[in-house]
């Protein structure tokens, strides 16, 4: 029975790490005030797309709303080089449909993970497990294992970001729509590779802090329980 208790606790830890990872991505890409404006200015994006900052930020808001399913399409009119036009062309729209699938899938995975934690805790209660001992201890163990796997992957990716960025696209996309042309596709110009690197680093930092907070809370609970 103890093995089952520990297994359920580790499952909670894994599910919690998935929740924190997806939430960290959401926090950086949706909840960080001024993030896109700062990145656009940093990499001279306005000169590449020949747009005013307010217009580009409006396009960005519509794009991010689309990615999480809050907008039906990506037909976004704007001003480019002083002329009215739609920002996204057909190829970009088709690619962003694939990207939206990843975003929406991630949000669904988070909801499933929350449900898994609720189910595991309910089962532990039904099995009359010592919740205050099992959960903090096994969440630490499961979280440490999950975080270690991610840390190894992050270390590998950091050796050649461009190489693994391409591998990522080959894994998650079954077409070449992600291979955009900066001469014809504005999307690739507003999210250059350094932008992705900055975003990945910020997500990693946010996630790391949240994981450390979970560890601290679990250790405090175990400490006071022992006392």
Automatic annotation (TrEMBL):
Transmembrane segments: 108-127, 139-158, 204-224
InterPro entries (UniProt xref): Lit (IPR010178)
Top-level division of the source organism's lineage: Bacteria
Keywords for this protein: Membrane, Transmembrane, Transmembrane helix
Annotated NCBIfam families: integ_TIGR01906
UniProt protein name: TIGR01906 family membrane protein
């Amino acid at each position: 029975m103890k093995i089952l208790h520990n297994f359920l606790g580790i499952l909670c830890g894994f599910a919690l790490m998935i929740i924190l990872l997806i939430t960290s991505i959401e926090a950086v890409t949706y909840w960080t005030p001024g993030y896109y404006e700062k990145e656009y200015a940093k990499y001279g994006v306005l000169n590449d797309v020949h747009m005013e900052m307010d217009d580009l930020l409006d396009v960005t808001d519509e794009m991010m709303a689309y990615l999480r399913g809050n907008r039906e399409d990506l037909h976004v009119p704007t001003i480019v080089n002083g002329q009215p036009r739609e920002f996204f062309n057909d190829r970009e729209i088709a690619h962003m449909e694939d990207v939206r699938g990843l975003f929406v899938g991630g949000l669904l995975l988070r909801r499933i993970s929350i449900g898994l934690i609720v189910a595991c805790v309910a089962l532990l209660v039904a099995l009359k497990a010592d919740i205050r001992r099992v959960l903090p201890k096994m969440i630490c163990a499961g979280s440490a294992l999950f975080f270690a796997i991610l840390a190894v992957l992050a270390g590998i990716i950091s050796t050649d970001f461009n190489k693994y960025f391409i591998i990522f696209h080959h894994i998650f996309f079954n077409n070449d729509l992600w291979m955009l042309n900066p001469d014809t596709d504005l999307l690739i110009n507003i999210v250059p590779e350094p932008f992705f690197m900055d975003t990945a680093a910020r997500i990693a930092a946010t996630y790391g802090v949240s994981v450390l907070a979970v560890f601290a809370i679990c250790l405090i609970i175990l400490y006071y329980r022992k006392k």
